[in-house]
TrEMBL record:
Residue ranges constituting the RNA-binding S4 domain according to the UniProt record: 1-60
InterPro entries: PsdUridine_s_RsuA/RluB/E/F_cat, PsdUridine_synth_cat_dom_sf, PsdUridine_synth_RsuA/RluA, PsdUridine_synth_RsuA/RluB/E/F, PsdUridine_synth_RsuA/RluB_CS, RsuA_PseudoU_synthase, S4_RNA-bd, S4_RNA-bd_sf
SMART domains xrefs: S4
Entry protein name: Pseudouridine synthase
Keyword RNA-binding: yes
EC number from the UniProt entry: 5.4.99.-
Biological processes annotated in GO: enzyme-directed rRNA pseudouridine synthesis
Family as reported in the entry's similarity comment: Belongs to the pseudouridine synthase RsuA family.
Amino acid sequence: MRIDKFLHQMNIGTRSQITQLIKKGAVTLNARQVVSGKTQLKPGQDLVKLGEREIQYQVHYYYLLNKPLGVISASTDKHQKTVMDLFNKSDYRPDLFPVGRLDKDTEGLLLITNDGDLAHKLLSPAHHIKKTYEATVTGKLDEQVIQKFTDGITLKDGTELYPAKLEILNYNKLENTTRVHVQIQEGKYHQVRRMFGAVGQKVVRLQRIKMGTLAIDVGLLPGNYRELSQKEVDELLELTK
Ligand code: URA
């Protein structure tokens, strides 16, 4: 691979910025100053440095974002703020995208990556990747609703869903709402809201807290993101094998 292409892929700067860096003598390959962007290297084997900084070869990037309310799960949009607008300039790459969608008024865990293969597998219905949501819903839920979720809800349009797990956390008498955890194994449009609609309740707050082996951190505030650890990436790759 050409060194200018390598540096561009590693998000070091625009092509002209990289040309300038090489011209200035800021780039070394195996401790020798690089004089041309055409210089060939073996990514992952050769040692590239920008000044004192070692430039590691990385193909795939994985981030866990705590999606806040009011932004859409898309890569770009002409009118609305997207989850990608929450990224710092230094982390942003045009090939990053959110894996699946959360509604504009849903918060919580969203995986952002440029690994199309993993994304495809996580979203594929064949893999039945489990997603857990914390929801606040109207009314007081009882054992009968838990059983309906266990048996598999039929949505108002006739769609039959796979069994889901419903756990009641607490009932708020003052607001007449119930806080629950729901675990589903599909990802149909507005699925959780429509499941509660099918049992006569309305979701007033919805937050995704888990997807497969990945869980949201308590300390990661809405709008913030962090890179996945190697262990978290390996667990996701193992889950989708
Ligand atoms: N179910 C919903 O209804 N909305 C979401 O954003 C995710 C799951």
